[in-house]
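Researcher: Quick test of sequence recovery. Tokens follow.
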């Protein structure tokens, strides 16, 4: 479902547990006709986090976002890939030697627990590290499996991202970053018994 509107002409939609699609001024995924769509197809709007391409669109459950840049139009020359519709570039705040931390937790419908935390601090003079964490668990599904009687369409996801930045001189800095994400989500399938006569969602 569409959940993020960055600006009036930019929408972000989560198509399934692994893939997010974006549209800029009406352009975006899919880049192929509906009947020929594949979840592995390269979208026409690409996502980058700190200059690193995110092949599945979202490793973006980040707690230290500084800004989001939206680049319209073909960006293949600048980013080295054929982004025919544009690029969404997410820039995160660099780690700080000054120690700080924050955390939040929420509880919502369908027994959903949403927790997030961000920690940063110095490891040595000129060396800083941060850690961004997010966890979301939907305890109850949106529906019921009529065959088993169990909840259906529940979701559980966890994301970790960390960076180490070392300032070697006034003009040189080295950054090492890594991220991990895990998504467990029950998906359904859409069938068109007859084109033009509705759909069946299972």
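Model:
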């Amino acid at each position: 479902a569409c959940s993020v509107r960055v600006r009036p002409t930019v929408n972000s939609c989560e198509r399934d547990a692994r893939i997010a699609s974006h549209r800029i001024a009406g352009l975006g995924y899919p880049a192929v006709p509906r009947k020929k769509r594949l979840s592995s197809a390269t979208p026409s709007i690409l996502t980058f986090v700190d200059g690193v391409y995110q092949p599945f669109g979202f490793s973006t459950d980040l707690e230290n976002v500084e800004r989001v840049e939206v680049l319209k139009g073909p960006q293949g020359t600048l980013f080295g890939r054929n982004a025919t519709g544009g690029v969404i570039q997410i820039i995160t705040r660099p780690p700080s030697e000054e120690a700080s931390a924050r955390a939040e937790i929420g509880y919502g419908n369908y027994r959903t627990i949403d927790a997030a935390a961000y920690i940063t601090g110095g490891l040595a003079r000129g060396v800083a590290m941060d850690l961004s964490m997010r966890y979301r668990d939907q305890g109850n599904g949106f529906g019921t499996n009529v065959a088993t009687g169990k909840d259906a369409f529940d979701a559980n996801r966890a994301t970790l991202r960390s960076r180490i930045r070392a300032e070697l001189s006034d003009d040189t800095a080295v950054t090492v970053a890594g991220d991990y994400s895990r998504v467990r989500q029950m998906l359904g399938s859409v069938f068109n018994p007859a084109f033009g006569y509705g759909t069946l969602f299972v």
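DSSP finds one helix and 17 strands in the chain.
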